[in-house]
Design a protein that fits this description.
Rossmann fold, six-stranded mixed sheet, homodimer, Dihydrodipicolinate Reductase, domain 2, alpha/beta, about 350 residues, 2 domains
Chain lengths: ~350, ~350
């Protein structure tokens, strides 16, 4: 690859695509040319890059000529159709949709954990779901030293993951309720304002949601360890940005909260916020716009012989999606340039 | 005791006290006279009972003459000072504050579970915290048949538990944010609007909150089994009414989701809402104002050899506080009348 790159972003005007473009600029990714792409429905929109308004172009099979790196941030159907075409035309695809995540020959990468998998790619590198990303960033260094056996996680997920329509819906429902009107329900199956929905994705036959099973499957794949057992309960709450996770995990080797603090104190991508005496713990409103996975409420799990309970918060649009994709690209080019 | 009763309610104008008075009327509790009491700060307020506005009277050591049953629904200091005085004057005290819950000679009662403990009272009967109540109502019938070993619970708690000031704070913060103003933070340590606070009570030396340890301790006391291990993470979310719990539990005997459905189908105080294919699961907005503990998302815990994951929602002011206290009183008089 060259030392600067032609980059395309599919779904450029969506929440993740837009944030990818912002982060590419923010982190001074070496871009020769940027091509924002969308399926036809979004044509007429534009995206901002380097203080310029760039019109979004129509995605078609000829969109990838001369492109080095292509971020897919639209939806699974779009990735399934266009990612192979992009690869055929010589692009490296970094896919933020769920479509390729569990493909055997597609690396599923969180750079703090398994950047080494990037070099084995065959054209497509998948970026995991937001809940798996913020789980593995702090759990990986713990796993390396203490060997994870079991993880139980309950989530507190922001509406921004669902897109701008969901953010509008939360706002509109609150406005309606404050005026004693019936809130309109369109994006989610029930009112999200002042509610908690234990339903963030399609239900599967085993009564888990697809997202709950993805957390299980993706975490095992990223940690490269099928022996870890994981149970997730995913819940949408009326928060705009940043997901939180209440996590209980057990390890093979004896572990204490002090061990966790020592390991995570030097872990890449992790920031410990944990001083209950001063009311210091991670909060969605403060994690928003930041890059780290924030960890707090670290304590011995008193229900287990050898476990830890803790609370992890991260910006679902940044580390949970766009930032992770850009970090994959950064690692990709640093390998290529070696 | 007589077949109708002189009843006093301490903290009558507070959220729980007010609801106790409403539920006494609603369930036609045999009342001869009702005396709403408050510490001085609330004087001038009144409460509604049987379409009458009753002025709240000042609580003092002479308040209990002629009273049969006294509901304490103010705070721990008030219960600690006045409950013994009430008992001395012949009242039976039903205490909804945390103060007496872990006293060895005070029964801690959830009528669906351990109504039999009422008859051993020595003047004071304690009603548990809301999170323990909605945990034990569905878990007790499971424990009886399958023997619980371990419970992991993460909570999604409504602001109404903290009182009217917290409900105003959530409303006011949203209004401020919608007008691009800085939201005022008074009741909680941080903004609760569009946030999730992993901090619902004082922090203890072991890094758990007092409420997290109460869930552990009260659950063991109510289930009368010290061998069960319990780890709780309590989280406040921007919901007005009804608490939710994401629960993972393990049992001694082999258990399946079908077993749970069969046991809970006939369990007192429980209603199963569990049909993912039709988007049926418990929700805070629909549990509000209802008496049952709603259980859904029942599924095998795929991280454990023998466990279940489920989702429990109940109205924190009704079953979580006022209703449970009134049910204790109903059981008390039915025992007395035998």
């Amino acid at each position: 690859m060259a030392s600067d790159y032609s980059v395309a972003v599919i779904g450029a005007s969506g929440t993740t695509g837009n944030e990818i473009i912002r982060i590419l600029k923010e982190r001074a990714f070496p871009i020769r040319s940027l091509k924002p792409l969308e399926s036809e429905i979004s044509i007429g929109r534009s995206v901002e890059y380097a203080n310029d308004d760039m019109p979004v172009q129509v995605l078609d099979k000829d969109s990838f000529k001369g492109i080095d790196i292509c971020f897919f941030a639209a939806d699974s159907p779009t990735s399934s159709v266009y990612a192979p075409i992009a690869v055929e035309q010589g692009c490296v695809v970094i896919d933020s949709t769920p479509f390729y995540r569990m493909y055997k020959d597609v690396p599923l990468v969180v750079p703090e954990v398994n950047a080494d998998k990037i070099k084995g790619h065959r054209g497509i590198i998948a970026s995991p779901g937001s809940m798996a990303i913020q789980l593995v960033v702090p759990l990986y260094p713990i796993h390396r030293l203490f060997s994870l056996k079991r993880i139980v996680v309950s989530t507190y997920q922001a509406v921004s993951e669902t897109g701008p329509g969901a953010m509008d819906e939360l706002t509109d429902q609150i406005r309606a309720l404050f005026c004693f009107n019936e809130p309109a329900v369109k994006v989610y199956p029930y009112q999200i304002a002042f509610n908690a929905l234990p339903h963030t994705d399609t239900f599967l036959d085993n009564a888990y949601t697809a997202e709950e099973m993805s957390i299980t499957d993706e975490t095992k794949k990223i940690l490269d360890d099928d022996s870890i057992t994981i149970c997730a309960t995913t819940v949408r709450i009326p928060v705009f940005y940043s997901h939180a996770e209440s996590v209980n995990f057990e390890t093979d080797k004896k572990i204490t909260p002090q061990d966790v603090r020592e390991v995570l104190g030097n872990a890449p991508g992790v920031k410990i916020e944990d001083d209950p005496s001063k009311n210091i713990y991670p909060l969605p409103i403060y994690a928003s716009g930041k890059d780290e996975c924030f960890v707090g409420r670290i304590r011995q799990d008193i229900s287990s012989d050898n476990g830890i309970a803790m609370w992890i918060v991260a910006d679902n649009i940044r580390k949970g999606a766009a930032l992770n994709a850009v970090q994959i690209a950064e690692n990709l080019i640093s390998i290529s340039e070696k």
